[in-house]
Amino acid sequence: MVLSVSGMMLRWSSSISSATPFTSSTNRSPPKTRRGFRVESLKRSSKPASAELVKDPNKDLSRILRTEAAIRGVHNKAKSSSHKQLWPKALLESLDDAIKRCRSHSALEIFALLRKQYWYQPRCRTYAKLLMMLGKCRQPEEASLLFEIMLSEGLKPTVDVYTALVSAYGQSGLLDQAFSTVEDMKSVVDCEPDVYTYSILIRCCAKFRRFDLIEHVLAEMSYLGIKCNCVTYNSIIDGYGKASMFEQMDDALNDMIENGNSHPDVFTLNSFVGAYGNAGQIDKMEKWYDEFQLMGIKPDITTFNTMIKSYGKAGMYEKMKTVMDFMEKRFFTPTIVTYNTVIEVFGKAGEIEKMDQHFLKMKHLGVKPNSITYCSLVSAYSKVGCIDKVDSIMRHVENSDVVLDTPFFNCIISAYGQAGNLKKMGELFLAMRERKCEPDNITFACMIQSYNTQGMTEAVQNLENMMISAKSSLGTKLIGC
């Protein structure tokens, strides 16, 4: 595949206890059985339950490989209009896979292919999942068009579909459209907004600091007789916390405790720990950790990951280690998020040696790096000018099966762009598109800045034209549905 940018020919090649942990310093193999007895027992329904747990790993691996191959095949056929008799299981699993990974372009292409199948039947559940994905991807226009397509198929929207549409508008800051959608729900029989719909609406208002609208939503809920639940209160508390509105956050917690239908939980704890930790108020973070412990609310791995990040931002590396040691003693196994947090903290602080140590430890313990891990490493190396180590990371990635995404490519493109290696940057841009990672505004901004620095105006113009066409491509795919 070849792309011409300002005369350059760029090719893509495949290559817990109640105590605060920070206030002071064998596998058994299955029994062997005779082959004949095993075959005979498999034909009977009276085998013990424990035998159900003993599976043939080769058979499982074969099934997984067949399924993955089928999904890849569907992705390859999604752009074709000639495949109308595909295997339903592979097609539906491929759609679910694209939705879970929030790959909107692939998901919409596969959905268009799904609608062409002779066995296709429109379902509201499928539309609700697609709408939720488009909300997460901040694509409200596509969500609106998809909703119109659903209506054209004669489907009556359900509460879940409308709620997903509210989320799609709200997460993009289109609060007027989100409120209008809630009003539309009220006019549809058996489709009145429920507590989950209003909780989504409140979360979106809190995200964009429209706390004045939250009072309006709560008043409407009270008028309709809809009581707030844990999700509602946690949305309010989390919103106030992220806005550093600590007094209002405390008041919302008191309302939650006084409400007979809901009680604080680990999500409430994590909101308080995250709010005070991100604000650098470490003493209050530790105080609220103890308060929730006294309420009988136990921390989870997210709590500890949040505290590790907060201590890291404050440069309190010893307390980071204390939390990790406490996790080990209480049998909280560090996850990929834990190590990504530690690597990011040391990377941003310029502590490259400590970052590398935790990366090696992570791999030694069998924790598989993901695209976020590599993003943090690349950003740190780029920041200190170690472009040779960025090359090393690229070799790691090429020899792994890690699923690369748009943020990773943005990070690596930015690194090579800042280093002045425009040829490598262009090659990665082509590789990005080959891997179905669609460029976003960040991608184009990084490349345009790099080309501008070198005075390559023609390349800048080409990229700006590509940005315009990229914005209209999703709408074209939906119209093709």
UniProtKB/TrEMBL annotation:
Instruction: Provide the residue intervals of the PPR repeats.
Output: 123-157, 194-228, 229-263, 265-299, 300-334, 335-369, 370-404, 405-439
User: Which InterPro entries does UniProt cross-reference here?
Assistant: PPR5-like, PPR_rpt, TPR-like_helical_dom_sf
Q: Where is this region: Disordered?
A: 18-41
- Does the keyword Glycoprotein feature in the UniProt annotation? no
Specify whether Electron transport is a keyword of the entry: no
Pfam families per the UniProt record, alphabetical: PPR, PPR_2
According to the UniProt entry, its GO molecular function terms are: mRNA binding
Q: Which UniProt keywords apply?
A: Repeat
NCBIfam families the record matches: PPR
Concerning its family, UniProt says: Belongs to the PPR family. P subfamily.
For this entry, the protein name equals: Pentacotripeptide-repeat region of PRORP domain-containing protein
